[in-house]
Amino acid sequence: MKQATTLIAAFAMLASTHLYAADAASGKGTVNRIDPATATVNISHEAIPALKWPGMTMDFKAADKKLLSGVKPGQPVTFGLAKEAAGGYVISHIEPAK
Predict the structure, then answer these.
(1) How crowded is residue 98: how many other Cβ atoms within 10 Å of its Cβ?
(2) How far is CA 67 from the centre of its chain?
(3) How many angstroms separate the CA atoms of 69 and 63, rounded?
(4) End-to-end Cα spacing for the chain
(5) Minimal CA–CA distance to 25: which of 76, 96, 84, 73?
(6) Helix (H, G, I), strand (E, B), or coil: what is residue 60?
(7) C-alpha distances in angstroms, 91 versus 3, 8, 19, 39, 61?
(8) Are 25 and 80 in contact (CB under 8 A)?
(9) Residues of the chain above pLDDT 90, percent
(10) CATH code 2.40.50.320 for 2-96
(11) Can you name the residues that pair with 58 across neighbouring β-strands?
(12) Does an H or E element contain 98, and which?
């Protein structure tokens, strides 16, 4: 029974990954501030054509607060966005721009 539960959980995780991958977009911008308590980052980003968004400054929630540990305010970054079930977007990965 434990193996079946593990298998079901693994399948659900894999299925949700594929749904998000289909809606993923990427962006470039500069970090303005980070709120580790709420796992939120404020980014001034360039236009994101995949979402038909112009360049703007906005807050993004990180899919996992650990993602924000590698960036700091004032730093240029590249980031990925994944669509949430509720319809918004979350940071799926973020790293310093090269």
Answers:
(1) 5
(2) 8
(3) 13
(4) 48
(5) 84
(6) strand
(7) 32, 26, 15, 10, 6
(8) yes
(9) 68
(10) yes
(11) 43
(12) none
What pLDDT was estimated at residue 85? 84
Contact between 75 and 61 (Cβ < 8 Å): no
Listed by start position, the domains of the chain span 2-96
Token duo for residue 4: 């079946």
pTM of the predicted model as reported, rounded to 2 decimal places: 0.75
Q: Where are the alpha helices (DSSP H) in 23-80?
A: none
Distance CA 8, CA 2 (A): 10
Structure tokens at 21: 């991958």
Nearest-Å Rg of the Cα atoms of the chain is 15
Q: In which band, very low, low, confident or very high, does the pLDDT at 23 lie, cut at 50, 70 and 90?
A: low
Q: How many angstroms separate the CA atoms of 32 and 2, rounded?
A: 46
- The single-letter code of the amino acid at 53 is W
Q: Which of 93, 94, 71 is nearest to 20 (CA)?
A: 93
31 alpha-carbon distance from chain centroid: 14
- State residue 23 phi and psi, 5-degree precision: -105, 10
